[in-house]
C-alpha cells in the first residue's frame, strides 16, 4: 500500500510553478498513430511532435495556396472571380479561426495542466503593444470601410459591409488571444492547437496578400496621385475614369471624404497588424508541447534603465526632433495646392545625413562585440530564432525597393538633383539595413551580462536610508546633488565597451523610431516623385511599393525591439 501511495501523483503538487522542473505525472506526452509502436516514450513523443508540425504546416500551405489562387484569379480574370468572392472565402476562414480561438480560450487553456510552462522570451511587451496599436487602427479602418460602403450602397455589394464587420470581430478576438496567451506552451490537444494556429497564420497571410494586391484601393490612390501631378503642373484636378468601378465615386460630402481619406491613411496599419500577428502566432506554434527545463528560466531578468548613457539619447533625440520637423514640412507641402519639389530635396537630404551615422554606429557596435569576451548563447530559443528570420526577411522589403529604384534612376537621368539624391538614399538604405542587421543579430546571440550585485545593494540601502528620514528644503537639494553624482558614478563605472554599446543601441532605437513614424503616417515620396512610376508603369510600381513599404515599416518596428534587447543585455 505504501508503494502505491508513493507512485501515485499528489493532487496538491500539481499547482506548482511552471518554472519548476517537470514532473512526469503532469506531462502529457504526444501520441501519433504512425509511431504508436515506438519502444521509448520520449522517442514516440519526439516523432509525434514532428508529425504534428508537418501536418499542421501542410494545412497552412494548402490554405495559403487556395487563397492565393483566388486572389490571383481576381487579378487576372475579374469576371470569373471577383473581389466579393475573395472576401467570402476570407470571411469563412475568419469565422473558422474565431471558433477555434474561442474554443482555445474556453476549453483547451482551461484544462488541468494545459499550461505548465510559459516562454519568458515570447510575447514581449513591445510586440503585444504593437498588436493592440495596429489592431485598433485596423478596427478603425474597418469602421471607415463600413461607413464608406454604406454611403455608396447603391453601387456597392452588401459583402463590402459584412466583410469588415466580421473583420472587426476577428481583430478584437485575436488581439485579446495574443495579449493573454502569447507566452503559452500548451501541453494538451497538441495537434488540434497546432492546426488552429496554422489556420490563423494562413488567414493573416492571405489578408496581407489581399492588402498588397487590392485593385480597388489602387485606383482610389491613383486618382489622388493624378491630382498631385496636376498640382505640380498647375492644372485644376480632373477626373480620369478608367472603368465602371470608378463611376462609383464619393459624393461631395464631408463625411464621405473623411471615410475615404481615413481608409487610405489607415491602410498600412492593417498590413502591419497581419505581419505582427503572424510572427506571434508562429512562436506559439513552435511552443506547442515545449517543455522548458529549469535552467532555461532566467533567475534575474534585466530591466530597462536609462543609466550609463548620455550621448546616445542626445543624438537620438536631435534626430527625432529634426525628423519630426522634416515630416511636418513634407506633409504640409505635399498636400498644398502647388507642392514644391524642394520638399523632396529636404526629405532625401535628411535621410542621406542620418543613414551614414546609423551605419557607422552599427559597424562600431559590431567591432565592439568582436572585442568582447562574452560567450554565445546556444540554448534553444524559438523567439530569438524568429527575431533573426524576421529581421532578415523584413529588411528585404526596403532593400528590394531600393534596388528597383536604383535600376530606374541609373537607366534614366542620374545627374538630375532629385534623382541623384534618390539614388544616394537607396544605396545608403541598403548599406544601413545590412550593417544594422549584423549588429542586432550578433547582440541577440550574446549571453546576458549579470547585474552588478554590489551596485544594486548600495542603491537599495540608499533608498531605505532616504525613506527613513524626513528631508527639509536644504536636504532636498543635497539629495538631488547626490543623485546626479550617483548617475555620473554609474556612467564612469561602466566599462567603455558596455558604455559604447549602450550609447549606440539607444541612438539606433530613437533613429529607427523616427524612421518608423515617417512612412507609417503618410510620408511616401516613392509614390509622389513619379520617377520610378513612369519607368515601371503604375501597376507594377504600385505592387512593388505596396509589397516593400509595409515590410520596411515592420523592419523598423522590429529593429526597435531587437535594439532594446541589445541595450538591456549590454
Automatic annotation (TrEMBL):
Pfam families the UniProt entry points to: Otopetrin
Gene Ontology terms: cellular component: plasma membrane
Protein origin, superkingdom: Eukaryota
Keywords: Cell membrane, Hydrogen ion transport, Ion channel, Ion transport, Membrane, Transmembrane, Transmembrane helix, Transport
Location, primary (coarse class): membrane
Positions of transmembrane segments: 54-75, 87-106, 126-149, 161-179, 191-211, 264-285, 306-332, 344-368, 388-411, 423-444, 504-523, 535-555
One term of GO molecular function: proton channel activity
Bilayer topology term: Multi-pass membrane protein
Entry's localization field: Cell membrane
Keyword Transmembrane helix carried by entry: yes
Record bears the keyword Transport: yes
InterPro entries from the UniProt entry: Otopetrin (IPR004878)
Alphabetical list of PANTHER family matching this protein: PROTON CHANNEL OTOP, PROTON CHANNEL OTOP3
Family under the similarity heading: Belongs to the otopetrin family.
Protein name: OTOP3 protein
Organism of origin: Zosterops hypoxanthus
